[in-house]
Known about the structure:
The protein is an alpha+beta fold and 299 residues long. The protein has helices at residues 6-20, 23-30, 35-44, 58-70, 73-77, 87-98, 186-189; strands at 105-107, 110-113, 116-121, 136-139, 148-156, 165-170, 173-175, 192-194, 207-211, 216-220, 226-229, 241-248, 253-258, 261-267, 274-279, 285-290. It folds into two domains: 6-98, no CATH class; 105-290, Sandwich (Jelly Rolls). The strands form three sheets. Strands 1-4-15-6-9-10-11 form a seven-stranded antiparallel β-sheet, with no helix packed on it. Strand 12 and strand 13 form a beta hairpin. Residues 6-19 have low confidence and may be disordered.
Amino acid sequence: MIHLDKKQKVEDNTAYKEVLLNTDTLSKIISYLPSISLLNLALTCKTFGILDDDDLSVIKKSAHISVEEIATVEQLAALPHYDGENSLADYHYLQLMRSPLLFDQLVRAEYVNSGDKSCVNHSGNTKLSTSIFGWETALSNNVLRAGKHYVSFTTLHHEDDCGNFWLGVMRPGKANQNASGSPVDEQFYQNFSRRLGHGDCNNNVHCCMYGVVMRMFLSSNWDGSRNSRFNCDGLERMSSGELGMLLDLDEGTLSVYKNGRKLVMKRGLAGPYCWVASIGDKDARVTIKRGTIPINTRL
């Protein structure tokens, strides 16, 4: 067995630090780590928390380099700094933007397949009467704070003349076990805790959704009042098919895309949102996925 004397141990330790604590090297390593592991490393390891001449810890500086290297221009535009946030928060939100979209929370709805959280359907357990089903909801925990975000919703129902869906955005947060209905319903938002710490919202549009069957826009400020718009010209009635939606927080708009047409459904949006879908009929289902903003569209 080889025994190292104290001098050799110090030299080996110094060499180890010179390699590992080099921000260029560390930025490459952490690009493979989930954000929670990176945060735990910063909190539990004193060495990585030491501040440099710029008052940045090694781990935060490396996270900043990693974000700059792997993020696209569009993704960087969606990473604004809020008070109290740093490059670790940027790295966390960047990972969310680069991951598949999922329905992380279910309010009475259920996953079609247990291993796939991107597709949900109506459980059939929420009924208003023997023949009428109540709304069930699924929402994403992926917080949208700035920039442009395009999503594709694919709806499916076995009968073309049925299948009610509300698709759109709402404030991020957590629904409790008593929540029910869609986010525009009082029973839902009275049992919903909004997620704080994302800056001022600057408006009271806490939920904005599009009814694909009725071609109706509906928004709510969660104080009991609603704004609605019926029979949206340019978008046909549908119960099954693909619908695109763009949340542009630079312009403060939410738009619907269908068959080469674009329709702005709401203006003046600001603050954080997340994607949400509500289903009103048994056997109806909806799938969510990221998409690319269509270039050739008609207004």
